[in-house]
Design a protein that fits this description.
The protein is mostly helical and about 170 residues long. The protein has helices spanning about 5-55, 55-60, 65-75, 75-80, 85-170. The longest helix has about 90 residues, at about 85-170.
């Protein structure tokens, strides 16, 4: 075969090796996700509950119980930090590095032309991510406050019904 076909076969085999390695990493990521997520969530929740139990009674007089419960339950969403997406991100970085190496070997000049666009996309992604983090925090805070109010209202309704029931028995 000609030199060009040998180069194509060579890079094709390298690409295939990267794809196989990527598949192995993704499978491993699923297993690691299940283990890390459950351990992290359990550890964080038990720490939060211990902290709540150590607080003075005055703290609970100033905070809605529903708000506190809602904040503790948010730990499940924090456990998403160990989602497969994080592991897939690292696998994608590995794939991107391999692709860049191959692209440099084939046409390095085109890669240099592409580099400014990659930087622009990276910076835009960082800015959007920062704004999303802020909005996400605000949303979690508002959700916890509204759940706290709802739980307090439901608790108040139960107290009123119990009081009314007591008044009927006494009458």
């Amino acid at each position: 075969p000609s030199h060009d076909s040998k180069v194509v076969i060579y890079y094709g085999l390298i690409s295939l090796a990267f794809l196989l390695l990527s598949a192995v990493l993704r499978s491993l990521a699923q297993v690691l996700y299940a283990i890390a997520s459950s351990r992290f969530s359990l550890s964080l929740k038990s720490h939060a509950v211990k902290r709540l139990l150590s607080l003075p009674i005055e703290f609970f007089d100033t905070q809605q119980s529903g708000y506190l419960v809602s904040r503790v339950n948010e730990i499940d969403s924090i456990a998403g930090l160990f989602s497969p997406a994080i592991f897939q991100f690292f696998a994608s970085l590995f794939e991107a590095a391999g692709s860049l190496i191959i692209m440099f070997e084939i046409a390095g000049n085109l890669v240099w032309l592409m580099l400014p666009f990659i930087v622009i996309i990276f910076l835009a992604t960082r800015m959007i991510g920062a704004r999303l983090r802020t909005l996400s925090y605000e949303l979690m805070e508002e959700t916890a406050a509204s759940r706290g109010s709802l739980q307090e209202m439901v608790g108040g309704i139960v107290d009123i019904k119990n009081f009314d029931s007591e008044n009927r028995r006494l009458a």
